[in-house]
Design goal:
The structure is a single chain. The chain is built from 3 helices and 2 strands; from the N terminus they run ββααα. The protein is mainly alpha-helical and 81 residues long. The chain has one domain. The chain has a two-stranded antiparallel ribbon. The chain starts with a strand and ends in an 8-residue tail after the last helix.
Length: 81
Amino acid sequence: MKIIAESYEFDFKLIDERLLTEAMKAIGARTKKEAIRAGLEALVKHHHRESLQKELGTFDIDLNLEKLERLRNDGCDSRPR
C-alpha cells in the first residue's frame, strides 16, 4: 500500500505491520496514517522536552508539602485570587 500526499510517497512495507497494528490499537487510530502521524508528533514533542530539560538543567529544591502549604497560606503564592 502506498500513500501519495503533498510531495512525498510512502510505502507501508517499510514498517513492521505488527508494530503498526499494535500502535493503532494503543492510541485508537483508525488509519495507518493517523498512527504514524501521532507517533511522529510524540517523538518530536519528546525531543523538544529533552532539549528544553538539557537547556534549563536541573536543580534541587528543599520543599515538602508542609513548607508548600505554609508558603501558600503566608500569601507568597503568585496565582491571582
